[in-house]
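Can anyone check this?
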Amino acid sequence: MTPEELAQATGARLDRATLFLPLIEAAAPDFEINSAPRLAAFLAQVGHESGGLHWLTELWGPTPAQERYEGRADLGNTHQGDGFKYRGRGLIQVTGYVNYAALAEALNIDFIGHPDRVAEPDYAVRSAMWFWKKHGLNELADVGQFETITRRINGGFNGAAARLALYESAKEALA
């Protein structure tokens, strides 16, 4: 893949694609993102979630939805301030204490004590790929279940049209 193809697949500027290309290529085999359908679906989703490989930390208002991160047992946000501390980071916006703890264990990095590290480019890629594999998204990509992938990442269909447009661009770029 070239930086231009990565930019097309994710909606990224060329400089961002150039930065992230070697990181994506190095990590993809570790998470079995090893075919054109898997890579196209992954790149389209992270392209949308990160605003074209640009936002590695969730923009914080806080919005009403973000305020609901506080005290959410399903996210493990049991202490005051956990919602903000463990807000979305990485190319897929890993969110919540529970997910940070599982990611820390999987990658053997202290993301609980140092949550900002998830936004470092290498960990932004690896966290997204970890989430992807952990949630069975490779298998969904294999059978073209892009809508189900979107639901598993987003919990709904936020940005569905934009995600689908990126998916078509990614498939074209990787053809």
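Reply from J.R.: I decoded it. The chain has ten helices and no strands.
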